[in-house]
Write a sequence for this structure.
């Protein structure tokens, strides 16, 4: 399972970075989204994958069943997802404004248009 | 209690500012009061840390590696005071007038959120919380930068947003890998277990990831190019706020993480940081000499002098690190002040293009004298604070036996003098070509310049005690045992 996660997150990093190097704003934003999701998967996988053993103390034994899923990476990812969501929403609005005021979504043109 | 105040005061102020009626005077007064409160809380924190050495708070009394930890050591408390000073200066400057559209769209609450994020980043004892504070600070800065919608500013804002998001993703990647291997992100806990774990490859990967992420935020060569593109565009108070504080958070994170985690780590990232600092100084100042705009010259000087603040860490001696820390304090005051000076020039002449400035000394001698303090202080003219800061850095570098970097520091100091002398000559001395349109400077706009100038002078007077304090801070950083004990033991025996 770790292998699948590792490969998936690697692909997300690669495509995300590739898209961030493109010239169109929409592609850059999609790239940011993919990159942050790749990071989330990486944290999840690095924290260790344990299936169907929630970190809950069972009533019968009064102890945690080993091995249990580590809750911390999930909490970290949850926070990161929320932050990523806000950031993507903001970048979309910003890109929309750029398109509105400059009439282009090409990063190279933004520089030259703005200096005009 | 003192520990949460610098974070809670701006938070409450931001909430209050959203419900207070949108009357300019009212909004500005609340914002200024809150910043003054944050400064006072910072000073109280500073005093207490001077007595106790470390101040630790486990939020909700969750014991150390598991809960949210706030820690203040000497370095954090100095920087929180600096946040307060910059906050008050920015708050006071808003009385001189803010673009009404900006003010209607949350200018004051956003500044409070930004100040909260910076203070939080300086006080947190947990790496993931550091990431969250980074994001709090960045979101506020994104909106502040994009609020005003001239085309140039929007374009600058997009670059700023993209590069900072990339830096955050790199930081988060490092955090994920670190947690996967160490099983904790509490800084003190990490410092206790990480250096003893012999994992050279992972160490190298993590150090490089953190160096990249914080290097982007601090504006180190070769990751600084976004900074001169975006910092000169927003209006003076926002430029001053960003220039004074945001890059320093990156520098602080570098110092904190490397001194706690990689003090016995692979030498390569530290060597790299040393030469990157040198390259940052040289490229920044050479870049400054090529610029023809007051604010762009400042932005390149900002980048160049970041090198002074990071060079002490890789050298690893108390004197060198103390010199760099002293330089951080000086740099925050001076660069903030200079961006306010740029605002005054903009108000007087409607431009900061050096070709079209001039005659300011003849027309406004009072303003010119006030501007002279930060200009010559950055240049390092004795007896101003820049001289003290540079002397400490030079002594530290040579004392650590790093003659090459030490020579670079001296050469770059010379270049700074050239750069500042050029600004002085072009903006203030040279006769202006066109008959200048010169309204009188708004006195309120001069208040932050004068106040920060007074602090710069004060820093010279108090140079001795200040250097002793930063030496203490450097000692704490280089021997983290006290930090580890203070954090990990404060959780024990209090909860039950």
């Amino acid at each position: 399972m770790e292998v699948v996660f590792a490969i998936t997150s690697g692909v997300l990093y690669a495509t995300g970075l590739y898209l961030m190097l493109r010239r169109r704003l929409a592609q850059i934003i999609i790239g940011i989204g993919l990159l942050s999701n790749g990071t989330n998967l990486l944290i999840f996988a690095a924290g260790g994958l344990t299936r169907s053993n929630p970190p809950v103390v069972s009533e019968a034994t009064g102890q945690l069943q080993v091995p249990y899923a580590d809750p911390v990476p999930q909490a970290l990812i949850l926070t990161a997802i929320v932050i990523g969501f806000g950031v993507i929403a903001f970048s979309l609005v910003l890109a929309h404004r750029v398109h509105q005021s400059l009439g282009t979504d090409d990063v190279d043109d933004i520089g030259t248009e703005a200096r005009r | 209690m003192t520990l949460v105040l610098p974070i809670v005061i701006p938070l409450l102020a931001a909430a209050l500012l959203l419900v207070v009626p949108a009357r300019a005077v009212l909004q500005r007064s609340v914002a200024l009061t809150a910043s003054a409160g944050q400064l006072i809380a910072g000073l109280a924190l500073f005093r207490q840390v001077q007595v106790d050495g470390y101040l630790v708070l486990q939020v909700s009394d969750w014991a150390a590696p598991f809960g949210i930890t706030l820690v203040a050591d000497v370095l954090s408390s100095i920087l929180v005071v600096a946040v307060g000073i910059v906050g008050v200066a920015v708050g006071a400057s808003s009385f001189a007038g803010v673009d009404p559209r900006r003010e209607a769209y949350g200018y004051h609450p956003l500044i409070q959120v930004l100040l909260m994020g910076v203070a939080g980043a300086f006080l947190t004892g947990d790496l993931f919380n550091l990431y969250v504070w980074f994001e709090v600070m960045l979101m506020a800065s994104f909106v502040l930068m994009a609020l005003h919608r001239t085309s140039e500013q929007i374009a600058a804002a997009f670059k700023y947003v993209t590069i900072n998001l990339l830096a955050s993703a790199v930081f988060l990647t490092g955090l994920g890998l670190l947690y996967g291997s160490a099983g904790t992100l509490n800084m003190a806990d990490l410092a206790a277990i990480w250096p003893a774990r012999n994992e050279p490859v992972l160490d190298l990967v993590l150090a490089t990831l953190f160096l990249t992420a914080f290097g982007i935020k601090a504006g180190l060569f070769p990751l600084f190019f976004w900074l001169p593109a975006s910092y000169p565009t927003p209006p003076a108070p926002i430029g001053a706020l960003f220039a004074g504080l945001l890059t320093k958070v990156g520098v602080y994170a570098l110092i904190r993480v490397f001194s706690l985690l990689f003090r016995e780590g692979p030498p390569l990232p530290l060597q790299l940081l040393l030469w990157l600092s040198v390259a940052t100084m040289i490229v920044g100042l050479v870049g400054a000499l090529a610029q023809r705009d007051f604010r762009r010259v400042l932005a390149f000087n900002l980048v160049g002098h970041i090198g002074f603040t990071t060079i002490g860490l890789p050298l690893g001696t108390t004197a060198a690190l103390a010199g760099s820390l002293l330089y951080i304090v000086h740099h925050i005051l001076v660069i903030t002040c200079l961006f306010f000076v740029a605002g005054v020039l903009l108000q007087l002449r409607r431009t900061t293009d050096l070709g079209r400035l001039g005659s300011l000394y003849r027309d406004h001698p009072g303003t010119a004298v006030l501007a002279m303090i930060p200009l010559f202080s950055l240049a390092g003219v004795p007896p101003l604070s820049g001289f003290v800061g540079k002397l400490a850095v030079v002594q530290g570098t040579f004392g650590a036996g790093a003659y090459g970097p030490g020579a670079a520091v001296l050469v770059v100091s010379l270049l700074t003098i050239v750069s500042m002398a050029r600004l002085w000559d072009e903006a203030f001395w040279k006769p202006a070509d066109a008959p200048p349109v010169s309204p009188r400077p708004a006195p309120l706009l001069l208040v932050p310049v004068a106040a920060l100038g007074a602090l710069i002078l004060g820093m010279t007077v108090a140079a001795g005690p200040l250097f002793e304090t930063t030496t203490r801070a450097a000692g704490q950083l280089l021997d983290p045992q006290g930090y580890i004990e203070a954090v990990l033991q404060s959780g024990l025996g209090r909860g039950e």
